[in-house]
Q: What sequence folds into this?
């Protein structure tokens, strides 16, 4: 008899880089599949559990030629550099277009179309000098006008770009000016010492497009990147070939890239296992983790700054008492969450917003751990029960939290919504992700801590779901942005981190890591990136 | 027969109208905002409001429905809200793919299920019957994505005999394309086989034990002759409606198989457009599948009438 298929609500849909938009067949099916695949691979070629094979291969002279076949979920919306926000669309655009500055796996800034940059007026003005001799794929030279047009486009309120949020209160329309053919000057609304990050790949919409960018990127895919988009089919994938006039001498090594769309995680994984593709763009640690050591699959992993914020409404019971919030924070087994949710590749969080990747991260705040006695003391006999609202991508996290909190006598009622419902509604009045008693929100990785702090915990922040307000933290956040020395920045970071760790408006239990799997017997140079970005210009066939 | 056909054809537009109303109303009731889906949660409320206006989502629902209806009837199916592509090309392309996979699965299903059902019925309560019945029930109870995973792991990952993806490369030969469809078709056949075979088995058992079969045997006909002349046709007639139901399922209900085998069919498109509240796409898929479903039911009824004279006679008497 035909089986009635249960429609997964927005289940497994995730719209941000770092989280894949894949459907279905999750849970035990996924676990069973990975176990099955791992078992299948166990008796094949000798294990390669780390990217050592790839590293060894990199040391040899890179071979030119070859086509890398990669799998990724189909973009949920059309591929538009200005409004894109999902990992697949971003990856396709990153293959074709460049940023002023690239962000490497250690979150260091790497000059790309900008050769150098410097701040003036105490960080309120930034002057960028463009690289000479760079041409767009249609032969048009890159100049300051194209860069200005790119940022004017992003800053236009009608652009619908997520970059608008990133530039909020820092750079407004009219703040970008040309000073010669290769010089662009950004005049900010306030000093912002991390500004280069906002015009880097860390602000993924900031790819440099032509001044007269026509708007339909898949039909007019003009960029300065290492590859040219030859064809694009929204159901099947994309075909790219080497850009023969790429500004980086001798790059890319590959002749081309075939991008195949897989709407399902398992299909993507099976394609990698069967040799139908050579690499994944958005690997999931839970799926590829068990494959380490199975055959030719190499799983590269890096620390990342993605997180799931466990947010409390501090302006209403039961979380209007700091002790209650702290009690929940002390109830969590963070290494257990890391193992369960991230295959152990994440880093423990300490309830503040400075990941170890951020240079200013304070190191002297004691790591919070599970302490049932402290929980009892903080609750003082109070029976704590609360609803936890979340959407499907954080379902596993919610279940793990419920189990861990139950162990110390805290009852959690799970309130799962579809993603459309969870993020829907009025953003200033009733949307569940900003107005529920307690919730879980997945945040894609950010290049600078201010991109978390300003919207999430600063008073009146646009995505301040906890409604936390702390004047001292606000002042420190402003001072952090304006700091011109590392010492000053670290001092402000410590104030912010200590306030968050003490007040616990959000629990940050684990910072997620990023993984990328590929066939290490065929290709080298396929590296994981904290934001799941792609730079395949160094990839070469073996 | 002609009156029957005309009456059934006349119900199609009415049914489609009801389906379109239901789909539209249900989509309106489901929480969520397609503009937010398109722009992502980090887009500003002003951007979301601007996109809603651009898509016409700020107009009254009745007006939007009527605009959609008039457009659809005049061949203007619009663009997908989320993908920005023309809906007609998108839906028909996916439908063609689904028809190909469903057609192959159905072509494999019919002979296999009929044969197994006949063997089980003729071997009533003997080991062959039990093996076929238990196997069919077991496979029918296992979700197709589980069967599919096992098939993939064995034949694509382990043995490398067949490709993991149902999508053949651009410009592949028909034989190669067929090779890519074998595993998904097989997982569907394994799922549906038991259901159809059970129907055939039941009617075969009834036919074998019927007075006319006994009379034929008493007249000296061999068992094979009895089966061929008297049992075969009577056993397969009831399977017609079972096969019709399976064909409907194969056309629109393949979401998990399409996802697992990475096949861009209409089922996954239907699911995604429903999740995203992409109404132009959702409505077009619902309409196209609605037409197909009704045509399949009609074809099954007509086949039943052609194979079974009692139905035609009953109608004539009435």
A:
């Amino acid at each position: 008899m035909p089986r009635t298929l249960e429609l997964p609500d927005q289940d497994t849909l995730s719209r941000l880089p770092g989280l894949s938009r894949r459907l279905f067949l999750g849970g035990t099916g996924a676990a069973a599949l990975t176990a099955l695949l791992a078992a299948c691979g166990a008796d094949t070629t000798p294990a390669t559990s780390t990217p050592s094979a790839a590293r060894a291969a990199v040391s040899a002279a890179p071979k030119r030629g070859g086509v890398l076949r990669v799998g990724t979920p189909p973009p949920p919306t059309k591929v538009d550099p200005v409004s894109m926000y999902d990992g697949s669309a971003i990856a396709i655009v990153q293959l074709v277009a460049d940023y002023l500055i690239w962000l490497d796996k250690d979150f260091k800034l790497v000059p790309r179309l900008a050769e150098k940059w410097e701040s003036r007026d105490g960080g309120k003005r930034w002057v960028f000098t463009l690289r000479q001799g760079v041409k767009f794929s249609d032969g048009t030279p890159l100049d300051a006008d194209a860069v200005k047009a790119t940022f004017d486009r992003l800053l236009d309120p009608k652009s619908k770009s997520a970059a608008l949020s990133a530039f909020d209160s820092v750079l407004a329309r009219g703040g970008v000016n040309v000073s010669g053919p290769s010089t662009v000057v950004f005049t900010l609304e306030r000093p912002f010492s991390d500004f280069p990050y906002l015009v880097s790949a860390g602000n993924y919409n900031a790819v440099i497009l032509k001044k007269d960018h026509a708007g339909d990127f898949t039909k007019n895919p003009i960029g300065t990147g290492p590859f040219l988009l030859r064809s694009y089919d929204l159901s099947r994938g994309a075909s790219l070939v080497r850009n023969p006039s790429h500004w980086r001498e001798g790059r890319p090594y590959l002749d081309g890239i075939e991008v195949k769309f897989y709407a399902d995680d398992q299909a993507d994984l099976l394609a990698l296992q069967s040799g139908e593709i050579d690499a994944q763009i958005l690997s999931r640690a839970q799926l590829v983790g068990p494959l380490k050591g199975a055959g030719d699959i190499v799983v590269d992993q890096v620390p990342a700054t993605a997180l799931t914020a466990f947010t409390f409404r501090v302006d209403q019971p039961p979380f209007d008492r700091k002790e209650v919030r702290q009690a929940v924070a002390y109830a969590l087994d963070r290494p257990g969450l890391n193992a369960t949710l991230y295959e152990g590749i994440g880093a423990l969080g300490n309830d503040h917003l400075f990941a170890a990747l951020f240079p200013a991260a304070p190191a002297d705040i004691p790591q919070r751990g599970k302490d049932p006695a402290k929980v009892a003391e903080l609750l003082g006999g109070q029976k704590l029960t609360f609803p936890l609202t979340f959407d499907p991508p954080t379902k596993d996290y919610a279940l793990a939290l419920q189990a861990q909190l139950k162990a110390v006598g805290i009852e959690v009622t799970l309130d799962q919504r579809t993603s459309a419902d969870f993020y829907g509604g009025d953003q200033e009045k009733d949307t569940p992700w900003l107005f529920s008693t307690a919730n879980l929100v997945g945040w894609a990785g950010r290049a600078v801590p201010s991109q978390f702090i300003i919207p999430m915990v600063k008073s009146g922040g646009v995505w301040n779901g906890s409604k936390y307000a702390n004047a001292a933290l606000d002042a420190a956040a402003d001072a952090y942005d304006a700091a011109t020395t590392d010492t000053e920045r670290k001092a402000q970071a410590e104030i912010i981190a200590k306030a968050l760790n003490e007040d616990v408006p959000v629990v940050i239990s684990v910072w997620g890591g990023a993984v990328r799997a590929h066939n290490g017997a065929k290709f080298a140079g396929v590296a994981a990136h904290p934001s799941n970005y792609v730079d395949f210009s160094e990839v070469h066939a073996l | 027969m002609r009156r029957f056909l005309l009456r059934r054809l006349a119900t199609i537009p009415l049914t489609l109208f009801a389906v379109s109303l239901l789909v539209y109303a249900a989509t309106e009731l489901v929480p969520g905002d397609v503009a937010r889906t398109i722009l992502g949660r980090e887009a500003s409320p002003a951007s979301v409001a601007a996109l809603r206006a651009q898509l016409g989502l700020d107009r009254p629902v009745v007006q939007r429905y009527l605009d959609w209806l008039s457009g659809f009837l005049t061949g203007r199916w619009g663009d997908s809200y989320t993908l920005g592509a023309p809906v007609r090309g998108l839906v028909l392309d996916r439908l063609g793919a689904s028809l190909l996979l469903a057609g192959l699965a159905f072509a494999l299903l019919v002979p296999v299920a009929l044969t197994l059902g006949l063997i089980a019925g003729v071997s009533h309560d003997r080991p062959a019957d039990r093996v076929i019945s238990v196997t069919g029930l077991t496979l029918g109870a296992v979700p197709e994505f589980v069967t599919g995973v096992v098939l993939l792991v064995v034949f694509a990952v382990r043995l490398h005999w067949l490709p993991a993806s149902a999508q053949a490369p651009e410009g592949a030969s028909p034989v190669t394309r067929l090779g890519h469809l074998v595993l998904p078709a097989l997982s569907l056949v394994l799922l549906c086989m038991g259901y159809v075979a059970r129907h055939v088995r039941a009617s075969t058992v009834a036919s074998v034990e019927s007075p006319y079969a006994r009379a034929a045997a008493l007249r000296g006909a061999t068992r094979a002759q009895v089966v061929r002349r008297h049992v075969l046709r009577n056993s397969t007639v009831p399977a017609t409606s079972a096969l019709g139901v399976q064909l409907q399922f194969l056309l629109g209900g393949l979401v998990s198989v399409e996802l697992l085998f990475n096949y861009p069919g209409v089922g996954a498109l239907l699911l995604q457009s429903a999740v995203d509240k992409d109404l132009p796409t959702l409505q077009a898929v619902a309409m196209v599948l609605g037409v197909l479903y009704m045509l399949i039911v009609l074809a099954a009824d007509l086949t039943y009438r052609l194979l079974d004279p009692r139905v035609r006679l009953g109608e004539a008497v009435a």
